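Quick note —
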Amino acid sequence: MTVQSVGATTTLVRGGLGYQPVEPAERPHLAPRPKVFAVVEVASKQFKVTTDDVIVLNKLKGTDVGQTVQLDRVLLAGGQDFTLIGRPYVDADRVRVTATVIEEGKAAKVIAFKYRRCLACAVYILWRWRCCG
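Predicted structure written out below.
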């Protein structure tokens, strides 16, 4: 599973669902990988993640690039033959979701300004404020 974050500062996180699939030694490229997913809550947002996913989210406090993070708030975990539903969260001893911060960046700069309809209106408002203010 991979988690990414975007915002004023961006954090990308990559990790796994806490299991190690056993692959046959003869033909590892043909070994079936278990299809497991989890719904996790990170920074008040919910993400459906699987192994080697990348998600984008805001900067996580206290994390650096390359650091492994454990995502404790797992709302739901499931696969082809099982489903674990949390009320509100699944127990930490049943499901473990880990992620790794792979990048921090910045979002595009936002330019905000006030639009004035006409210069005469702006001058009148300033004059009125000076006289009556």
